[in-house]
Amino acid sequence: MEDTRWKKFKLCGDYQVDMRSLYLAWSTPAGLEKWFLRKADFFTVPQRLREANEHIAKEDTYTWYWHGYHNNVVQRGRILEANGQDFLKFSFTGDSIVSVSFSTRNGITIIELEQTEIPEESDPEKNLLVQCQIGWTFYLANLKSVMEGGKDLRNKRVELTSCFK
After folding, report:
1. Strands 39-43 and 74-82
2. Which of 51, 59, 114, 156 has the largest count of CB atoms under 10 Å?
């Protein structure tokens, strides 16, 4: 039997924000740029660039740009599912898959993020499971801070990039 412990992880966060607002924060370029990315470009199947507040859709492709990095550091991928309400799924680093589910319990919105199909890496410094889990933990915390009226915690200065490697 294959050992899958190092190929996936799941994180959860609770938010005192309505589910619709949180879904929009994940499913529009402007929403993602508010807490996650410097720039989020999504392209429809005919390669039309989506507008800032336009919903992403299944089969869109994306190019993401990070704060604190030059434009040559990009993340490219594809939207695998987006139901417009409570679920998103997209390809991510190393051909892994990220699924994001939204639900409400006792008036609190819960986000469950699962990253699967993480490739094994022999070099511990390049271990995607560890690096992605650390990254997603930070961004889920930043989402909470931004959406609940707090500060944006991201490093937005390219000159400090070397401090975070």
Report:
1. unpaired
2. 114
